[in-house]
Amino acid sequence: MPDSCALRLGRAILRPAGALAVGLFSAVALTGAGNALEPSTAVPDVTGPWMLNSFDFAAPLAGTGPGPLVNTSGNNLLPVGNYDSPILKPWAAAVVKRHGDMVLAGKLAPDAPASCYPMGVPYVLQVRENVWLLQTNDWIMIAYQNDYQRRLVRLNGEHSAHPVPSWFGESVGHYEGDTLVVDTIGIAVHEFSAIDRFGTPHTEALHVVERYRVADDRKTLRVDFTVEDPGTFNMPWHASVLYRGGTERPAERVCAENNHEAAAGWVTMPVATKPDF
């Protein structure tokens, strides 16, 4: 049985400070982060809130190349990826197959959000709760209602020569007309790291480029992204997500730690042998 104290210690070292995220979220998101931009700054307003209505990544734009893994189970609640996809190297295909086999067997496969770990990039794009992009002249914070996860994107900067691996990696961004482009490297590999809910693994060479564009009627936010990782994939692949308007106010969403231990059979659940009455 895993050492719960060790797990918590690991999270304390690697996990972002939740209090900082909530405080910044309250101070900036509810007052309108777009107000931090100077009126003369001609950049698109991507603030949100936005919300995803689908479970998995959507197909990429036509003509952009191979797409993401898809669910083969026929049930959105059973994430079983197509491990025979040509984008996967053999070792990665084996990991996806093992993950799917566990799901089909009724077991809880290793997964970051189920274990109260940050989801990483691009997995976090599958969050189906409110998402805000908080804009200033120098940075953008992407805040996810799911477990108060957040990413910081430095604008008009360069990547570090040797970024220290972290949950969401090192992100730099810039605007190309009406589109926000975010380039991320340095995404850490850990026991629950994956790029989607099919358990698709990655190496520390993972490189993700996201392109955010709000529709002219401001009813949707589309993110087209490209994933490269020569240690995991045979080729770069592409996908998209389409956010629609989220809810007006933030809601509390806290992860119940260790809920995976009972489902995985690590802790025996108490069972009543006779009725109470």
Describe the protein.
This protein has helices spanning 4-14, 18-29, 90-104, 259-263; strands spanning 50-52, 131-135, 139-144, 149-155, 170-176, 179-185, 207-214, 220-228, 237-245. The protein has one domain. The chain is 16% helix and 22% strand. A hairpin with a 3-residue loop joins strand 2 and strand 3 (139-144). It starts with a helix and ends in a 14-residue tail after the last helix. A nine-stranded mixed beta sheet has the order 1-9-8-7-6-5-4-3-2, covered by helices on one side. The chain is built from four helices and nine strands. The protein is globular, with a radius of gyration of 20 Å. With 277 residues, it is an alpha+beta fold.
Q: Which helices and strands, and how do they pair?
A:
Layout: H1 4-14, H2 18-29, E1 50-52, H3 90-104, E2 131-135, E3 139-144, E4 149-155, E5 170-176, E6 179-185, E7 207-214, E8 220-228, E9 237-245, H4 259-263
Parallel strand pairs: 4-5
Antiparallel strand pairs: 1-9, 2-3, 3-4, 5-6, 6-7, 7-8, 8-9
